[in-house]
Amino acid sequence: MERRWVIKETDNNAVMQLQEALGIHPVLCKLLVDRGIDTYDKARYFFRPELEHLHDPFLMKDMDKAVDRIVAAMSAGERILIYGDYDVDGTTSVALMFLYLNPVYPNIDYYIPNRYKEGYGISMQGIDYASDNNCSLIIALDCGVKAIEQARYAAEKSIDMIICDHHLPGEELPEVVALLDPHQPGCAYPYKYLSGCGLGFKLAQALTLHQGWDMEHVYNLLDLVTVSIASDIVPITGENRVLAYYGLKKIDTNPILGLKALMEVSNLQAPMSISKIVFGLGPRINAAGRLDDARKAVRMLISSTDAFAKDNADVLQTHNLDRKEIDKQITSEALEMLELDPLTPERVTNVLFNPEWHKGVIGIVASRVMDQYYKPTVMLTRSNGVVAGSARSVKGFDVYEAISACSEYLEQFGGHMYAAGLTMAPEQVQPFRNKFEEVVKATILPEQLIPEIDIDAELQLSDINNKFYNILRQFAPFGPENMPPLFFTGQLTCNGRSKVVGNGHLKLDIRDKSRNRANGIAFQQATHFPYVHSGYPFDLAYYIEENHFNGQVSLQLNVKDIRAAQ
To answer: Which fold has domain 341-449?
Structure first.
């Protein structure tokens, strides 16, 4: 598939000024300026994150009300219900608040809604559970900012609510004791992109300050916050970067028992990274809610013994293996449907429906199908008498807006620019498919249907050395809005020792016009070998990484794409 290479444009004056201040390679200064770091002080904060850089939690609107209500509940011996969503952010939020409160106030319980029976967010059944179990205060995490009716229902049952949510609020806010959401009107909290678990951390931080407790108890839960930051794809900037930096250290040195057990069954070892969490830990935690009961994920995360943690981690591992098989089967069926459909090449969308597909994995499959065909994609299945679906979008195209334009055929829909969920009656599938194609065709730009490779900077092979890399690695932890830098070097040729290795990989031995050399690996790109070996010049887009082999450590290029020299 053709891919467009786009090199980010940067203010050269800002780069030159920063280089004067820092005295490091201009390409590193370009990377910093692209991240909004254009002064010495900002660079110092970026490269040396400190827990003291975290904001005062009481800057958040309603934080004082939330703390006062929890203190009152503990003083009166009230039972508190910790409520969270069924994904990684929700389950880590519940685990964090449970592990935080339980040593000082054990009169607590937790609740996770069933993905298929109750759906996303605060459910009426959850409030009934609180009432039936004599809980007079609900602390809701990672959900609730749009729970208008549920808040009223709780009030009718004399149950107070504290809502900690990081999602965008609607026009009406729920009437609760305290609403912690940095996006709500009138909230002056300086950082707006916390995860749901991050908000739970801020509440625990505020309560600790109020009570004069040891802050180390809160900091010991930063590994959970980091798992949520990674899995919920929030920006690794500002406060999130500080939390993730120290959370990764905690995971590497002394993770909670549940995460330690999950790392063992996942064959993951220190040093951990955001990427390892996203692809290793996150899917296993998510698998509980996708295929069974997300409370099993919470049980693992709050384990107090190694044996209990291992038993629960094994359960999640089994669910994840089952999820992978279902995922693989549905992906295969979806791709076959598209290959056999003669209209596929003409369409700018993919809308696929099979009533037998598992609802818990169609979002994952939608992403895989979109990556293969690079078109806005909707996967639909039958669930509880209606057709339910997940949508994913290509870069720069708002799939939520496109779905909104088809609302006449839908019963419900929600989401954001790149991912959305929707339900409809079975007879509306074909009308929706036709309208969605019509809407997207009228609004998508031709270039949006071509995958784009965003390159951070041009680099010469002579610039790649240990000094450069030792500063580059300090840009970590990497994640959204602080991704690993992707470099470009042009007019390269093969030294004659490049070869195909493994299962379709390309091992590169290359040089530039000045005869500077480098080694690289291009995974799943063996099809480029004939051109690379032909002697004609080519360009590389690549990451720089360490290669550990036979006890030797060297720098190599991890190649994202290869093209004929421009």
So the answer is: Diaminopimelate Epimerase; Chain A, domain 1 (3.10.310)
